[in-house]
Protein 1
Amino acid sequence: AFGASIGFLALTQKSRLQKATFTSSADELTNKINQIESSLIYKDNSATKKYLGDARELLKTLIPQNRSQKQIAVELEAKINKSAQGLQKIVALGARIVADLSEAGVEANKIVASEKIIYTVGKKSDSITSVDISAGSISKFQAPDNSGGIKFASRSEDNEVFFLGGLGQLYYINDGSATKLQLDMNTAEINGAADVAFFAERLYVLQPEKTQILVHRKKDEAFGPGQLWNKENIPDIKTAKSLSIDGNVYLLGNDGKILKIRMGMSQSFTNDAIDPALENPVKIVTAENSDLFVLENGPVKRIVQISKTGALVRQIISNELKNPIDMSLSGAGDKAY
């Protein structure tokens, strides 16, 4: 009987210790949630993201042993998720399907939109497809002969659509036909390019491996040789994968970091914390009168809209956004394709 009494006492002490540990952890987690709420009030997004991370780690250590504790854990998790919504700014939107390219046997990997027509480049880079935005009609035509396949597609601020071939040849598209333009570009430059963009009759070429951006200036209907555009060493160019221009150059890094460059010089640009963090960003696009839009094809398929002051505007999710690989803005910058 004495032994049984000792066993009962030990179990009672263990239960009390577990209860005290759980209560202490729950109180610590509650304080962390209060910090989240306070940082949201003061719009300190960096602090909010840190406190959210801390809270999620604390939640993992909260191990309930009875129904009452399980209910407390569920309620605390719900409070964390609700607080996260204030940081995430997630908006679910429906998307209008303009055309189903798979029905036409098209596998596209690049897209560029003008005001009335969307152009896509096939995965093998040997074909171009045009889609009438209003009618949804699809037309296909082959890439120009001896182009080396189409490697990049871009649009100028004047809604002119250009394609850059794998051999460094530049084409202007008009009414479904390709017109070759004179461009002084060698194969080493095109092979080292990660992305290109047009602005103010200039072709900008992102070359991460060489930590540089080259610019081809147009003169007398021809684009001259590439000249070094960045006026200082900018190490973050090394990890950039996409660029877009509105007068300033914006680069998107593999880690989701956005770099702003003006007149060849790096500029201070800090955007709000994005939760959950970007894991596989694939494209950044903008226009003169629009925000920045970042496309992600990671665990969360989304378009992140960021103002040019760095404020998170919203994160757009959609049931139709299943495996996004490229994105282009409309000429007015008010629609994304």
Protein 2
Amino acid sequence: LMCFGYTMMPDISKIINKDTGLKIIFGISGIYLTLQAALRSLDYQDSWAMQNLQAPYTLFLVILFAVFLLEDKFENLLLYSIAARVILFLLPNLKYDFFLGVSLDQHIQYTLTENIIKTQSIGIPSDVLVSARYYADSPLFHTAIASFGILTGLDVVQAFKFFPLSLNLLFPLYFYIILRKMSVKNLSYLKYSLFLATLGGSYIVTGTMFIFPFLLGFLNQVISLIQKPERIRYIVLLVLIVGATMAHPIETLNFIVILLAVSVMVNLVEGFRREYLIRHIAVGLVLDLGWIWLRESQFRYFAILFLERGGGGGGITPTFFLLLR
């Protein structure tokens, strides 16, 4: 009977190959991590989002890194990367009743978003802080969150928790497209770049987080223009610049200045063979600066940020959770 049982037992190694084994281990570690976060649901904020989740969190990252070492198909790694970002950015949403944030940005954006949903119009509440004019005059962020909440039926807090999750899914795809356009052939370089893109990002809901898809799209279009200067790519570039400006003009300005400086240096080295690139990015700079100049609150914020304080953000001591309670 033992011999008969042995001969009838299937060869597990033939059923579960390397790819299937990786998927099973990755899936189990991801489910275990998310369950641990859900079982620790809190109505206040920890000192660190992964507090009391260190062991399953570390295990998941180790398994994720092993997947990137063992998997040879870059397209499969892209799927793993997107799945990992879903899991990682679900953790604070499962663990906490409210979204993460202790800086002034979250409070202002929350107030402006709530006002849109209540009044069904884009405006400025009478009791909002004077500093909120900066975000009120660049309404794309809170307008997008309000639209997301209305379309999905989620309240403001839930919309603030899950809207950033939908944005963060785009990061690996953007990096994949950019690396492919740069014609990177080295598989190890592709793997580790995508791995870092998987882990990169912020749990904190801020305007900077919101404009990153615009800025990565902006960078993608610049690379496309370097390869082939077509008019449609230039138009898409301007649309992305306008979108980023309407969300967070100061961060957009920083990014444009950096890209403009890089394009100037590249042209100096290459004898200004791509002079058109400087012109295209300079137009974006003019659009962004024009928006800041025309909007009084934008210009005031710009002056305070760079002239009086010399840079830096404005944080507050009370957590968002305590304020809502």
